[in-house]
Amino acid sequence: MQLDPFMQSLGLKYPIFQGGMAWVADGRLAAAVSNAGGLGIIGAGHASGEVVQHEIEVAKSLTDRPFGVNVMLLSPHVQDVVDVILREQKNITVVTTGAGDPSRYLPDFKAANIKVIPVVGSVALAKRMARVGADAVVAEGMESGGHIGKLTTMALVPQVVDAIDIPVIAAGGIADGRGFAAAFMLGAIGVQMGTRFLVATESKIHPDYKQAVLKAKDIDTVITGEYAGHPARVLKNPMAKRFMRLEKQEAAKAEPDFSEVEQIGNGSLRDAVLTGDPKTGAYMAGQVAGMVKTKQPAADILADVYTQAMQLMGGK
Ligand SMILES: Cc1cc2nc3c(=O)[nH]c(=O)nc-3n(C[C@H](O)[C@H](O)[C@H](O)COP(=O)(O)O)c2cc1C
Known about the structure:
Bound molecules: flavin mononucleotide
Radius of gyration: 18 Å
Protein name: Probable nitronate monooxygenase
Keywords: Flavoprotein, FMN, Oxidoreductase
Order of helices and strands: HEHEHEHEHEHEEHEHEHHEEHHHH
CATH architecture of the largest domain: Alpha-Beta Barrel
Oligomer: single chain
Helix content: 40-55%
GO molecular function: nitronate monooxygenase activity
Strand order of the largest sheet: 1-9-8-6-5-4-3-2
């Protein structure tokens, strides 16, 4: 398959990004993906600049290939993380951004020769990103794990492709070569996967969280935060059930106050990753968890997805 010139410019062998997942995507996972020819992305999440700097050092020590950092725009440390990335500009090829509009940081990244690829969940945000000079966008459907928008990948990707002139990478609900091929048929020039990489050998998530992803069925994810704000797709577990029960109760009140619910949510992904406790941990995962059945090295995940896609696409 002839890689799109944009993917070639990133120095990739496979047009596959590993989603920059908060708490999950550390320097080790990102380096493993980059070494195998995909784009590894460190998830900054809500971590401090110092922690992100450390993960960049880890990635640099493990790979000479291009990698990226995902900046979570809701983080209180966003400016520190941006400053770290700018200082490391020689080593960071791509910045992806999650949860909002990164316009104010774009000029500095561009001046530092870093490609900026915001994650978008609507045509309006995609158009705005193209207008302010983003290099590409990740169009992410609500099948995905983590924080989500309202549209599905199947509906969102072609509408974004039609609306803008910059490259589109598809995310949400892609876990094998069939999803990859479908994304290309919708007009994407690459894919981003998160859930499948949760169970990579190099993924550091707690074994109980990994096991829950491997055991999940098609209908095992739910959306928390539909009332309290910042909807997120997670596996149904005691934490998710409690969160949803409380937010629903609160939403039914004349003057809802979601502060207690928010407190339960704070740090819940960290708990899932570090302790695996299903009573406090948000096991974020996408709808494709139901088809992710094997723990594999990141390199095998990339090769499997790409090989299956090439068979389906007739080598195109
Ligand atoms: C545990 C988890 C954490 C995530 N954290 C982030 C994040 O911090 N920033 C972001 O832009 N996307 C985040 N995502 C989304 C992924 O980067 C990716 O776009 C998504 O998982 C793709 O959909 P899939 O899960 O169906 O493969 C997260 C996803 C998961 C599963």
